[in-house]
Structure formats: structure tokens, C-alpha cells
Amino acid sequence: MTKIFPWDYHPDLTEERLVAVARLIADGRQVAVELFDEEAGDNGWTLGCRAFQFARARILRAVDHDAYSWLGVIDHSLQLIFTIGEVPVRIYRGEAEEPTDRTRRQSLNELRQLAFSFDERDEGRDLAYRFAVETDIDGSVLAVKFVGLQGETAVLNWDVPLNLSAGSGGIGKPATETVELDAPNIAVRGRKSKTSE
Question: Record's superkingdom (predicted)?
Fold first, then answer.
């Protein structure tokens, strides 16, 4: 049998659970995008740090408040390793198919949890489970994918259904209001248009 869905790899990785965690991550990033202030000195680095921390805080708060009985934390540090049921998971921003060395790296705690969660002959035991957050030019979320990485290859690459394109606004954002535009000036290049005389 070919495994194509997360729950094919482990029964704790249900669609409902993955969507719930992906929403926490996407909501955190959206708040960071909305608070972005280039005039105050924000740049891509500060946006990335805030987006990760806001997502991290939402996950830790959900664990602290027991919002989801199946959500746990192995490492509370800035590395953040959390569990969905028994399966250890981390977050990264970037293309699901292009994980970096840092993204693929697994800690001893993560490897121990995988050994506990999977039979030693199970192919899922050898994967690094990650949420890949794919972003637009302004940093807003375009897609969240749940991936199982084996080396540089995303053996498992599942689009989390978040319905992020449910609006039609600016890049990555739903429309909030309509804008009236004046008619454009049209002329042959180098000549003045009649409306501009």
C-alpha cells in the first residue's frame, strides 16, 4: 500500500488535528503580518521572528489550557518540538519541497519520541514531521503543508485544507473595502493626451 496521507503514516495524524494546529500557525503569522511596521524598523527578519513566536505562543497556550487533549510539547525552547498524539512535529517557513539543513535536523528528544511512536520496521519512523508554511511576498500565508522529510526529500507532502484563498483582495489578503479609481490617461508614448492638456 502506498502511503499518501498523514494518517497513513500514523493514526494520530488526523485531518482534524492537522487543520487545528495549522490554524494556530497561520493565525499567529497573520497577526505578525498585520503588526508589521517598516517605518518603525521592521524587516523580513523581525517579521519572521514574530511570526514564529506568535505561532509558538498559540501552540504553547493551547497545551497549557488543555485546548486539545492530543497536543503536547517535548521542547518548550525556541526550537519548539510539539506532539500531535505521539508524533513529534516542528514548524518551518519555506517551500515543502525545499527543506534546509536546519529544517531537516532532528534533536535527540525528537528521535526518541519517534522511536517510541513507531515500530522499528515502520517507514514513518525515519521521517522528520514538519509543518511547512509557504508565504507570499508580504509574509502572509499562502499554504500550510504537512510534510514527512527523509533527507532532502518530502516523502509525505499534504496540503492542509485551510481555505486561505477565501477572499479576493491584495496579495494574500481578503478584500476589506472597494476602491474607486479614476479613468486612466491613455496616449501614445511621447505625446500628451488630450485630457492632460
Answer: Bacteria
